[in-house]
Write a structure and sequence with these properties.
alpha+beta, two-stranded parallel ribbon, 5 helices, 2 strands, 14% strand
Amino acid sequence: MARDFCTLFDANYLARAIALYRSLERVCDDFTLHAFCMDDRSFEINDEITLGIMDTALARELEAIFERDLEHCVELELTAWRQRGRWHRLKDNALYLFNEMM
């Protein structure tokens, strides 16, 4: 059974987040670690980390998941973006204030 784990961290605790991932590798056969970066530096470092997958079956499974998710995506044209309502714009702008923390 696949398990999901979540961690929040900033650049000061990045090493612990990586240690958490390594620990999970040892005790869980099937897991996902969701890492939420709380500052720009940890986001940049996390974005630079690449996990190599040498298992073709797993690579195919991940590709299938991506394709399935893609079916639920909607392409947003610039004209539609500009025509969104005032309430939508207000929410966008309010949430943008928190983009450094998300």
